[in-house]
Amino acid sequence: MPILEAVKPGLTTTESPFIEQARSEGRLYIHQPYELYSEQNHEAWRTLYARMVPKWERYANDQFRAGVSSLCLNAERVPKLEDVNRFLRPLTGFQAKPVSGYVPAFVFFDCLRNRKFPTTITIRRQDKLDYLPEPDIFHDIAGHVPMHTDRHFADTLVRFGECAHTAADVVAGIRDHDERIHALTSIIKAMARFFWFTVEFGLMRGTDGLKAYGSGLLSSHGEISHSIESPEVQRYPIQLEWAVNQSFEIDHYQPLLFVVDSFDHLFRLVDRLESWVRAGRLNNIAPGEPAVNEADLESFLKR
Ligand SMILES: [Fe+2]
What we know:
By secondary structure, the protein is α/β, with parallel strands linked by helices.
């Protein structure tokens, strides 16, 4: 009888026993059990990475490309977060922090405030490289983390975190329970929308044309070129009042994208977002996506 080699379960999105175990024990913060990655997991990383490189050269903003090189990202194997962090920490103090799954809104923004980026450690299946609704390590490490090497961008993320604290303070001062929940739901939605249209799907005007700085674009080899070249995409200079009231859907290429002038510009917009939270201007924004769940609300109310 041939001896069958045990098939490694791997750290594959939605199929990882290690992650299921952590979740069942209520552990959000975990370590990266590197030895569990299967050869298929590394192969998925290699393929995703190889097809992004030429797209990054053409469509990614300069700070991102500088970040990829200063992090010495491995093109061949899923990176070890401790290696990434060793290069990242001296630049901006940011750290990738492994998590087992969904991070409630306040916890997520508070991590940013502390220069920790909640990072998924699983990777998508090899036969589903093009789209998956949940984040994976390719999106988080190859899409987000290179941006965290830029001082202005890193400071902007911290400002998002401070904005969440302001929101928690503001709603704590609303006596009526229903009114408090209504205002908080609205503020979380506004913050999530603004985050989506900037950190996840933002475009920036540079000296040589439009470039992507949003991680959803920087980790998608199909959408990054579509976002910049396609006549089907509406691209407008960002307006805070528009972005916070604009709903979005996650399961197709974005039809509407907003353009910032610089990361300094983006930082000033988050500043304004915070002043609007403080003034109660975001307590009644337009309804629609994204949904705000119980865990998001609880995270703000019980911070
Ligand atoms: Fe993301």
